[in-house]
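Figure 2 data, in text form.
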Amino acid sequence: MPAVNHRLLIGFIIVVFVGLGVIHIFSEPDKKKDWLPLQPVMLDKIERKYGAMARQRFIDWQQLMVTGKMLPEQDKLQQVNDFFNRHITFSSDLVVWLKNDYWATPVELLAKGSGDCEDFSIAKYFTLIETGVDESKLRITYVKALQLNLPHMVLTYFESPQAVPLVLDNLMPNIRSAAERSDLLPVYSFNGSSLWLAKIKENGQPVGNADRLTMWTDLKQRMLEKVF
């Protein structure tokens, strides 16, 4: 599969419901201007298919990405983290998608209004990129939540390559340094270009391209095609 410029991916989303409500995603950078703002007819179709609350989530998400561009980076992190933790209900893939494991796109997550930890982390990742945070500072990080004895996923932010990252987590409303998250045992992390064997308190050991993760490549493909 060809490489994807993830900085542009969310900007490419043009929510155009056709017939039964198919969302088309265009992959040309010059399409970015076409989807902001979401037109009333698009929002009406979202509301008919997913309800009034879904319509408002899309409106609020759009506003977040517009105003977020003007904020200091720490404020971007806080607002994006708060937005998804407030607006999305945690639910398993079996309940939402009738599958054991499914990584939803941000659009799918906002339409459904519920998802699991992977969905929270992925949506925060792409939204922060759209507000201007450099992809190299962000990693989607797979961990073990020790208190729950369960696999878990969070988003980590590195202010500099050697910095101790901050952790954006749907289980904990406050953003904390990884040094304060002794409840998380890191396994691996990735972003749009790279894959690391993760040490959440350090930079980690690079082990290749993120496209080695089949769930990630499937997610990217759906973001460039019809996702409903």
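Caption note: Helices lie at 6-9, 40-50, 52-68, 73-87, 93-96, 106-112, 117-131, 214-223.
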